[in-house]
Amino acid sequence: MTSISPLEETKLARHLALGIMSIGFGQSAFIVLVPLVMARLGLTTFDLGLAVAAGTFAFLIGAPLWGGAASRIGHGRMIRLLGLAMLAAQTLLVIQLSAGPTAYAIAIAGLILSRLIYGFAAAGVMPAAQAWLAGTVEAGRRQAAFGLLSAGLNLGRLAGSVAGAAAAIAAPLTVALFMLAPMMLWLTPRGAVKVKAGASISTSRTLAIRQAHPALPSHRHMYDRRFRAGADHARAVAAVEARP
Fold first, then answer.
1. Is the CA virtual torsion 51, 181, 28, 66 positive or negative?
2. Contact indicator for 121, 89 with CB cutoff of 8 Å
3. Per-residue pLDDT tens for 131-153?
4. HSE on the CB side for 143, CA within 13 Å?
5. Do 75 and 129 touch, CB atoms closer than 8 A?
6. Contacts for 104 with CB less than 8 Å, ≥ 6 apart
7. If 0-12 CB within 10 Å is exposed, 13-18 middle and 19+ buried, where does residue 241 land?
8. By CB count within 10 A, which of 14, 68, 87, 231 is most buried?
9. Cβ atoms of residues 187 and 15 within 8 Å
């Protein structure tokens, strides 16, 4: 583990929290924009529910899978790539909204595809950010750093709700913010944590599993033990480049 100062640790956590805001923003803004989506695409409540279910399923599948990838390609790089995928998904939906009503098959297929891409990509952001902090921040300050990530997620949800409410006045502005929000993930530092093969994959996957399945009390202690062991192992062998 490469040692960095507490100030740099805080700076890293804040940059990651700003990126995480885009996840919360997208969640809240989409909920508020549901009536607009239904009206513009000519879809029913059942159709919207199907699309949301598809996105949620992709999120559940993607969260554990992305955990190992972050350790192999670098956390900063992966977060940026996920941001591009999320931007593509949001752009696809905005193009549909701009085009207006189309054939039912095209409308529902496009909406489901955008939610699948967005959900699968968004699933990897929080685990990657948490694993990055776990391998960089000292143990005594790690909980506070994780708290900044949670604060960023909830602040994004609040901002998404406010922007959604503003849609009654300026719908195009809200839709534009909804589409461009994933670009906030590019605020993360360029430094990437590259780990030796197998070094911290268990840490990343455990974080991903805990995010995707938070309500598994019977396995909670097992996850905690794996998380601590993986984090300790990662700190011993990781080469960290946390500086922007």
1. positive
2. yes
3. 888 888 888 888 999 999 999 99
4. 2
5. yes
6. 42, 43
7. middle
8. 231
9. yes
Token representation of residue 102: 């189309």
Token code pair at residue 227: 């998380």
Residues 6+ away with beta carbon under 8 Å from 242: 2, 4, 8, 9, 12, 132, 136, 189, 191, 193
The 10s digit of each residue's pLDDT in 24-65 is 999 888 888 888 889 989 999 999 999 999 999 999 998 888
CA separation for the pair 69, 78 (Å, rounded): 8
Classify the C-alpha dihedral 117-122-125-128 as positive or negative. Answer: negative
What does the longest C-alpha to C-alpha distance in the chain come to? 57
Looking up tokens 């946390």, which residue turns up? 242
Cα angle for residues 106, 172, 110 (degrees, 5° grid): 15
Angstrom distance (rounded) from CA 49 to CA 67: 28
